[in-house]
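User: structure tokens for ARL16 protein, please.
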Amino acid sequence: PVPVPQVGTNLTDLRLPRRVTVRELGGCMGPIWPSYYSECSALLFVVDASNPTQVSSSCIQLLSVLSAAPLASVPVLVLFNKIDLPCYMSLVEMKSLFRMQDMVSCATQPITMLETSARDGTGLAEVLQWLRSALREP
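Assistant: Done. Predicted tokens:
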């Protein structure tokens, strides 16, 4: 199915190999995100790399998430999505616009970045590999 923007919350179960529940919260749900932080073992933060008008608000949301005390040690994967579109900004451009080097050096949690396309599956294997690693039993 064609991916659609999320405006609510969705739950999906994955086997990695143990069962993991992924809770997807759309960007407009930002005000309630903190109510889920205490349940979070890993965080995937998705950015629309084809929409330069949303870069500043996405950056502010990401900074807010990274500064939340309950997420201080939760591994974070920032996904620059929609790389299948001709107008997408490259990983180099997105890292620069987000000042990711500064973010990574100041953050208390490990941060990884990947380019993805939810539409054609580019980067999905790497996302699953990151999740397996991030959620590995101690």
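User: Anything notable?

Assistant: The two ends are 36 Å apart (CA to CA).
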